[in-house]
């Protein structure tokens, strides 16, 4: 197919692959070394693998298992609702069912599945051997597995959370006993941490491990979407984690953040939840649009029409999605002007969404007649369903109509159209599309068609009637309804439909799981696609890609002549693993110029133990077993330190290395060129967002209370808070100086500076906590002292982590694992401290400065 | 085939005439919103048909189209069309907002309080507040504004036949106004999940001519009627003896509780607890096993009472018309 097309115009400085392949003997020796280097462990050690293809596969499979679990919960609810006044389950069981269904589908399927899937395929799309931090992906996966099983398991012990997936206080603070809400808050916070870890991994992967030449305008659309979504996760999840902290503090310690009798406000939770919750919808939806964006050009056999339109629309959707959260709160009694603004903002999202849909349709029009294979069926079925969801979305975004439709089955119909049509159909289509990349075998076209029609018909029978059910008076989250409402027939139809839909998923599962031993391997690039991942042989090798190509086109398999041959014959970069170390290329974020040959870590069990330790903290805390929680936390911390100590930023045996095609790259980079620096930067941005969410809370109370701080609040004074701030800034300065002394190779100044920094940080933490203690602030008395305490504790925890990092750098240099030239550790730790300094400044300004001026 | 379609269609739409249907409006706001809905359904249906037709055509058409045409298609279909229609929709739709939220200059005469799992309502009658539970009356042809509050968790007050819903949130006072256009009894529901009996937190609104409404209110303002027969007298005594008055008020007697529904005129209501027909059997059940009617309800079960005692209390309450 490649010879039908004109190759893209080339830039002057483009690198060409080797004109002649290395000899067969050389190639075989290279392949032998690559194979040995990237070998997946065998036996029980298989589970120590950290490679993206293994972790991605486990991760995706587990997400699909959770999808089926969530689906079964839904079927039980549908049985209960099939007729009025049914007693198949009790009200209490029903409450657990819908809470679990929503939470599982959102937190254990929809968000993680795209991260999992991206961990699996993104490096292939980017022609990279692995993601930059394989062990971080593995850690994230094991956290997810532990947290997910713990969370789902609770329903079998009748301990499942009850408050709905939105957990509104005061129901969840004062009225629901037991451990349910704690399981939700702690279990899911743990999983959110894993989600953020994966987002960091994917962001750095897209920004820094693209193949040479893949400038920002050549990035596959899938990667563009994931870039947008990963950024959204960094801004959306931290407010929820902040909210979780507030809610859990109220449950465990009676700090009254949401208790109106003591200065709190239940609406603060709703704001924090929906600042997360609305972007969440697009976090779930955009990756599926990304899948459509990668499948449509393949079937139309033509490049995406309006590539820039699509990228801008994706960016626009991501941006707008942070300004719409109030449309989940249209009935909370907000003033008309706010309603109008948020109504208009919500409607405006239809424009970028329309652009994307029309770009896909335009591509189908420009292209040849497309074969209606299973993936395309799911794409078109997804369109049909999603457009219904989009149009009903336009309806509910209109405040007057929402006042009728809100919290009724109309919204259930709407959101499932968006999420099943927009998200799940493309995902199932993508499983059919990408399946050959996993095991080299195709799924069945016959079973696929059957699954599609069952799902498509079942979906419409289930959810289209619900729009009517809702307007005829059925609220959401009711375990039963009376016969007099005349809703029995519609509900019965929905129940029947839900089983048809479920049977479609069953057929899909059978197709995936059936034995394929006797089935021949798929041909290479079975769909005739144009993107790099389809250069993979069938079955694929564990090394990811034989040699890392130079890219000149968005569809190199179509446009670059002999592209696959050149990869196969090792005519591009890194065709060998001379030192038998796992290597991939790091490039610059915008124009993808090679900057480093990065060595990534191999199999280990340390990440599993670290995940167990961290998981223990959350799980033991749920049941108020504080000592085991502490012990588990210490264990987790030790494992993480051990993992970092042995696995990150090792000093290489040589400075640089020839990576092929006449290019020599350094093996060690620190600062903004390095992947580790970006990971720290991005993680701390997320941390800062969580902190800003707490500060938002502080000022939200100011608007919600008549007086804030309350007139009878204790005054912290200025001396102690400012003293604490001064010590903190001293610690920050000392750390920054230590970095300079290290680079200047002056250990005589480096060690004292770092020690001073640590002492100042400890003193700062003590002084900041002493300030409210001194005046006897009681955090259970009112939301104000609770908020002051919380912000100061947040600072103290950050200072303590900073001290551990300082100690780590101290030890690294002493152990000769860090020196003047190889200083990534102290550079990244200094970056952390910049954020700590900012956090301290804002906190002291809020808790000590604001009361003086308000 | 055609016959079958004809028999199913009315079944699907039968509920439109229901007592809790946004599509069978009996109030000014509900009417406007229902009209808006049908307009949007028609418009949305047309858009859906066009988009799907173009998508299928694009995928299956034999000949290829030029990129220039495709670019225009994206510009007009993806940008211009949604921008124009949505602007128009916003202008038309948000114009419906003021009547929904406009409360007029006066302090509302009606205060509604959502509680786990029932509705308290207080009417201002002169300088006195008259309390009722689970059954509100509203005059037709007039706009009645209400305040909405909650002492425990968040609920939402919704009478779809009359208009939209607004949440009752602890620590806040919200507002809503309804203007019934048609006399009748309409069912309302709590729409914000509020605990186990959320599905059963129903109530009724009786819309009636203003004169009838004033008569009703005047009657509700009066103290309870004296028991007229021996069994009712015995029931009244048992009611006080067993501490029912700690939670319930029966104005004109010693029972002055404020935790549960006011029972001064409980016999005048058509429903009990919003979910049962108001008769002796229901009253007996409510005294015996409130948990079976509304799970997690705060009222304890009075299982120590004998059948005769329970029946006497039920009889007494039924007589409180």
Descriptive tags:
A: 854 residues; mainly alpha; 2 domains; two-stranded antiparallel ribbon; two-stranded antiparallel sheet; 25 helices; disordered N terminus; B: 321 residues; alpha+beta; 5-stranded mixed β-sheet; 12 strands; 40% helix; elongated
Task: Provide the succession of SSEs of chain B.
Answer: HHHHEEEEEEEEEEHHEEHHH
Taking all residues together, what is the mean pLDDT of chain B? 91
- What is the string of helix and strand elements of chain A? HHHHHHHHHHHHHHHHHHEEHHEEHHHHH
Write down the domain tally of chain A: 2
**CATH architecture annotation name of the domain at 102-220 in chain B:** Sandwich
What is the tally of beta strands of chain B? 12
Characterize the quaternary organization of these chains.
Answer: heterodimer
pLDDT < 50 stretches of chain B: 1-15
Fraction of helical residues of chain B: 25-40%
CATH topology description of the largest domain in chain A:
Cytochrome C Oxidase, Chain A
State the end-to-end CA separation of chain A.
Answer: 70 Å
Name the beta content range of chain B: 15-25%
Instruction: Tell the overall outline of chain A.
Output: globular
Fraction of helical residues of chain A: 55-70%
Shape of chain B: elongated
Question: Treating each run of at least 4 consecutive H or I residues as one helix, how many helices of chain A?
Answer: 25
Concise summary:
The complex is a heterodimer of chains A (854) and B (321). By secondary structure, chain A is mostly helical. Chain A contains 25 helices and four strands.
